[in-house]
Amino acid sequence: MAWLHSLTWFTISFLVPLILWSKFRNRSSKVRRPPGPPGWPLIGNIFDVGTEPHQNFHKLQSRYGPVLWLKLGTLNTVVIQSATAANELVKKHDLAFSDRRVPDSMTACDYHKGSMAFAAYGEYWRVLRRLSSSELMVQKRINDSMPLRRKCIDKMIQWIKEDASGSRFGGGSGEIQLDKYLLIMSFNLVSNFMLSRDIMDLKSEMGNEFFEAINKFISWNGKPNVVDTFGFLKWLDPQGIRRNTEKHLKELLNLVSGFVKERIQEKQLGREKETRDFLDALLEYEGDGKGASDKLSEKNVTIFILEMFLGGTETTSNTTQWAMAELLRNPDSMTKLKDELDRVVGHSRTVEEGDLNELPYLQAVVKETMRLRPSLPLMLPRSARQDTDFMGYNIPKNTMVILNAWAIHRDPDSWKNPFSFKPERFVNSNTDFKGQHYELIPFGLGRRSCVGMLMADRMVSLTLARLIQSFDWELPVNVSPENLDMREMIGLSLRMIVPLKAVPRERK
């Protein structure tokens, strides 16, 4: 009888899970999900992500359509990959999809609690958004900061001249690696707007310390993290990503905290500054009578200032580097831009921000670069706040929602020859990136769009114009336009795997 007892328990233990699974499967089959590739047991579609998820998701579009369903471990995920689907999201479901999915690495030091980018949709996020909009999206404030941008770009041009000349004097070709100059210039531009001071120099100890900490933070934060798809592993942190992110994040927060504490002491001593900057706006905020906290904590101010550095430097410097790479790869476009600058501005003065509206081909080059090489190919993931019917599909609460800008910018329904660099497509076109044309979304869409888009456009446009006006650029001897390495990698933003090196020759 013992064998019969064992057989009975074996049958029950086998049949009960089978029946429960069958019922769940039948119930799930009645819910309409977007199409997507079949997944593996437990891990789902992890292998469909790869090291270039923006490109891999785009490849799946031809088979499964513009709304893609994936199961990444335990995480439900939907990927939006067309202008039509992006339009639907913003016009009908922007609020439903307005929360953030916070990567485990960004919970280090409670960073997400002070951040605007990763904050849950709510009162704290609205306060930061209002403060940022009043400083970063008002034309008067942007115009008032023109001298800061001119000063920072002037310094960068001088550094390039000195280093290229020094290289030739030492018997070299004059070749430079452009990303270093662009990043330091962008840091100083943001730091002047935020803190009214430069914080980086090619040879300064503090600048190098900040630069190294940023690079290490970006490196760890850009790694795929198994915890983000298998949340039950959070306590273990098996890859050490949160631990290492925390180490370098602490270094960055300590550096920024020093600037914040210094300003607080100045205010306590009654020392008034001639000009008011973004840090002043944050420290002077006393609430708006709409239920928000009266003041921002010192820790949250520090986190928010750091976030402005991360968001305003890596993205703009990389976009400018991509633009230079595309121009060197397309000599006809380089010639057209140079001719436009010579015709409109001439050789007797440097190009200024007031000239930008008179330089349509420059604007076209910037837009085409942002289309082909969006700084965030996958927008920061959103999270569904509730069960939502999206384009006839049921999207459950807490589903991760990803806008694949890289794919949208290559949608053949929106763009002719979408993989080609053709600035001419934007000449005499009213298509822009401010949120009304869903085929071009380098700054995102809706409530969660980038608050610094106007400032970023000015920075990239003016920097690129000065680089082209100041120098004739050549590729190194062993590199041609045809074999220039244009491979991509994702960190905090879209980077070149092999940083651009070029030879500048001063224009007389």
UniProtKB/TrEMBL annotation:
PROSITE patterns: CYTOCHROME_P450. GO terms for cellular component: membrane. Belongs to the cytochrome P450 family. SUPFAM superfamilies: Cytochrome P450 (SSF48264). InterPro entries: Cyt_P450 (IPR001128), Cyt_P450_CS (IPR017972), Cyt_P450_E_grp-I (IPR002401), Cyt_P450_sf (IPR036396). Keywords: Heme, Iron, Membrane, Metal-binding, Monooxygenase, Oxidoreductase, Transmembrane, Transmembrane helix. It is found in: Membrane. It is a single-pass membrane protein. Its main location: membrane. GO terms for molecular function: heme binding; iron ion binding; monooxygenase activity; oxidoreductase activity, acting on paired donors, with incorporation or reduction of molecular oxygen. This is Cytochrome P450 76A133. CDD domains: CYP76-like. Its cofactor is heme. It holds the Pfam family p450. Heme binds at residue 450.
